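Audit log entry. Action: structure prediction of a protein-small molecule complex. Ligand: S-adenosylmethionine. The ligand was supplied as SMILES and no pocket hint was given, so placement is left entirely to the predictor. Protonation state taken as written. Sequence taken verbatim from the request; no trimming, no tag removal. Recorded inputs:
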Amino acid sequence: MRTLDLAGFARVFGCVPDCVPPECVAAMRGVDFQYAVLEGKSRDAIYVRVLRALESDLKIAGRHRKARWEDGWTQNLRDFIASGYDRQNLVPKFVKQNEVVRLERNYVLPVDPEFETHFVDVLRTWLFKTYCAQTGHIFEFGCGPAHNLVALANLFPGKQFVGLDWSDASQKLIAKIVEVYQFKISGRPFDMFSPDASCEIPQNSAVFTIGAMEQLGREFEPFLQFLLQKRPAICINVETLYELYDQDDLFDYVAAAYLRKRGYLQGFLPRLRELEREGVIEILQVQRTFGSLYHDGYSFVVWRSRGS
Ligand SMILES: C[S@@+](CC[C@H](N)C(=O)[O-])C[C@H]1O[C@@H](n2cnc3c(N)ncnc32)[C@H](O)[C@@H]1O
């Protein structure tokens, strides 16, 4: 059995332990981050599961999936209201409990059934304390049930948050959360396939996505152009990044194949690198962290427009 301790998190985030802020250490406290690395037959059984999934009829991301997101967030909204506004019901239902995850190039079985949720909590705290402490507004595009914004509103009570999504149910969730908890969060409908140029992003704002650009496949350019035009102080994209997978390595190969099969984000990182070479943007960090069973959905790239 291994444990993800402070040094382990620092390694996964690509920093030294001294750069892990106290709020992050607080988020680790009381959580069991022990896990077993799967080896031999147990690991082979996971490969068989993943390969079977790749052969199955997986749903492909794109415009046609909007209704599916609407259904998902409507269910979260219903559960949130029925539970008397229990924030646990803001966690997306695709976050599985008691599931194998991908960590440091291994399939691992965590002890804590909610390992993924707790890991994301620590990662989100680290990212925003590291890169957004000085920014004003924080915008999440593709915010879904707004659980990231609720966590960040607790972390930064003085800041103003905006949750954008193409789903009406997501916007209704934000309205309900604000009505009940009075967080400084507002909502705005937004389609990343057809960005609305009238959406204002004040100077010194941070923009982020978590598992949302993934859904754009190769059609990310209009949203990228929108960001380049708005020039936020910092952009954080926590997304599966196709080009980080080593196609000659089995563990990575199956993840890359999964991305291709689902039509997830491809080409974004090379496009950012091209913009960096042209002097348009500056990339501050690219990092693989961990993933759920099929791919590393929590890799991230942090970047900003030059001169912003
Ligand atoms: C995997 S969920 C992630 C939700 C949230 N960011 C999180 O971390 O749980 C993807 C989100 O992106 C939204 N989305 C997908 N395509 C979109 C588009 N073209 N414009 C705006 N939102 C979109 C979906 O409605 C959904 O809320």
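Audit: result stored. The chain has a mean pLDDT of 97. The first strand starts at residue 2 and ends at 3.
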